[in-house]
Task: structure prediction
Amino acid sequence: MRQLQLPAYEFNEEENQFRKEVRAFLHEEREKGTFKTHADSWLSGYSSEFSSLLGEKGWVGITFPKEYGGQDKSYIYRYIITEELLAVGAPVASHWFADRQSGPLLLKFGTEEQKNFFIPQIAKGECFFSIGLSEPNSGSDLGSLQTTAEKVNGGWLVNGMKTWTSGAHHSHYMITLCRTSPRQEEKKHAGMSQLIIDLKSDGVTIRPIQFLTGEHHFNEVFLENVFVPDNRIVGEVGNGWAQGMTELAFERSGPERILSTYPLLEEAIKILKENKDHSGLAIIAGLVARMWSLRNLSIGIANLLQEGKDVNLAAALVKDLGNEFEQYVAEVVRLLIPTMPDKEAEVTYSRLLAESILHGPGFTLRGGTTEILRGIVAKGVVSA
Amino acid sequence: MSEMKEFIMDSTEKILRNLSTKEIRESFEEGDWASSLWDTCEEAGLTLLGISEEQGGVGGDFEDVLGVLYLMGKYAAPVPLLEVLSANAVLASQGMEFGDKKRVIHFIGEAELERIERIPFARYVEQVVVIKKEGETAALALLDLSEADVKHHENLAAEPRDSVNINAALNWISLPESYEEMKEKDLLETAAGKSAQMTGAMEAVLNLSVFYSKERKQFGRPLHKFQAIQHHLTSMAGEYAAAYSTLQVVAASYEKPYFPQYVAMMKTELSKQANTVAKAAHQLHAGIGMTYEHELHHFTRRLWAWRDEAGNETYWTNRLAELYMAEDHDIWEQITHVKGDRVHAGFTI
Ligand SMILES: Cc1cc2nc3c(=O)[nH]c(=O)nc-3n(C[C@H](O)[C@H](O)[C@H](O)COP(=O)(O)OP(=O)(O)OC[C@H]3O[C@@H](n4cnc5c(N)ncnc54)[C@H](O)[C@@H]3O)c2cc1C
Result:
């Protein structure tokens, strides 16, 4: 089954040197107290200061062309940065979506004006995007979404509501998928467009939805007669669905689908080592082997993405298996090192365990649920 | 993939497609040696693969060997290619004659044994290369099987794992190498080879499952239309894809210092996921998969057998745990090979 046979990728010397540089920087910043390690920091760790610090280093939008303020480096470089950031649980949520998908989307489909305007700011780590897909009545079934954009003079008038929008309260813009022509029963994905909505526009109301931890990560975004000028449509009118599909492999195959609870794993290893708990470490070794194996697949995908290959099937598999793994880490370590998980605890282990357990259910939901992913994979293998 | 590798893979797959059929596997299980398959493999040079031409082999590297073993697993080939290759590699490295006879290898430690057990295909091969520990170094003897007393035993997949009584005195040749190092090298290569075979078997199981899910209809629909069945298909596809990528990574690491840890992790994962794949496939096939008639069991029984050979999860994770106990060991450095300000030299496990 060719689509599932990904070649190995070996980091070269230059890439290893780069990894050292990134790691040294992150360890230094952590020592200095610039940030504290958290599990699932790509969803919940907001720090615009830290994002712009990374921007200064050239580590946001590193794959973007130089003419737009990027570094013109491969996806392998981006892989190294994201992986090192997640391994130390750094606060990267602010710029995550812009770096991962909105920037690449605009580079692929955007106008010259859009590229000149947005890409340099994104690369500086100063311009943040949210993803506006889900609505109250459209979750997995995005084909049924109801937010509409109506053509008016010089632009579009948007009405509707988005929900579960991560980081909308921190972001400057939201890539909003909406209907630009009425729904047809047979072609329910036709007639949708991607609009860049400035979240400070008139008619935009952002209301927090409390996360089950009581924290504020995601939001409801109400859109009432929001005017979006013509030059803020991404790509072609009516082609929003197809354009969005090109983001999927980036969205699903990255290290954030495997490493959300890595800080917990590392902390557990530290404790087991101190306790000279050989049998505990043997159980951990099974987890590490799994993580490494999924990482091999994920890196294989990053390498093929670089070559512009279609890796959607394998990407869905990384997300499915990786998300299960991230959840499983907490279930294993809690029995190896019993504690009362507490998200306010001074003890790092108890805190990371609490974060991992409480954020866990979201792993297999966000970015496409397990059930939906498995449907996609099965269709893929059956028609391969 | 190198051109050479592509050629070897293509020609091997052709051989296996014709000669490692369900019928041949079945008659093998009834006691017939798969001679046409074996002879063709020999003629194609597969038993000398990975041994340099100067040493009397046909060249090719470990990556080629793993590629061929992967195919052996994919076609559940009932021949001891991995085992014979291991023995030949050791003889070649000692400058001894090899390739003239079918031999497998066995490490016995210090004890003077009267009986050796779980010898792969002993009933079909001509000699066992026995290696023993002699002080710090090793000694080698060739045990002739023509007159030995071979008792038949099998693994879960009906592959011969016989026991042999050593009746005659053996002629020991002292080797300069450390016994432990020789044994470790053989174990790592065997574990890598088994993992390659298991990855191949997983592909076969996935392919059979996809085929059956399209073929078989219930409630007026092919099975793959049911979401519960889609989950089984995805689970198999995921394990196969991860195993395949991992195998490529390990193949590329053969000469690297981290090869031992890679093998330890790969065999751990493969052994663990063998049943994830086998279980999903049997659930999907239901009744027909439990019959001797359907060939699914040729692959699932091999997965179950091989997960315990060359070290199972318990064995390898314990060895990895020893590594983790070391003061200066760091998991993230191990995974990424980048340690502090230098690229990591790897660990001995
Ligand atoms: C932490 C977090 C952050 C998020 N951030 C964002 C964001 O930034 N932007 C954004 O747009 N969205 C975001 N989401 C929303 C997320 O994408 C949706 O939750 C997800 O797509 C599922 O939609 P739903 O919650 O409406 O569930 P539903 O679609 O109603 O699904 C409910 C259950 O039914 C199952 N189900 C639905 N359809 C099928 C089917 N055809 N077959 C089998 N089972 C099915 C689902 O798998 C699920 O188990 C976020 C979600 C979480 C948890």
About this structure: Residues 19 and 80 of chain A are 6 Å apart (CA to CA). The mean pLDDT of chain A is 96. The pocket of flavin-adenine dinucleotide is lined by residues A 43, 130-134, 139-140, 164-166, 218, 362, 365-366, 369, 371-372; B 227 (CB under 6 Å). Chain A touches chain B through 58 residues (CB under 8 Å).
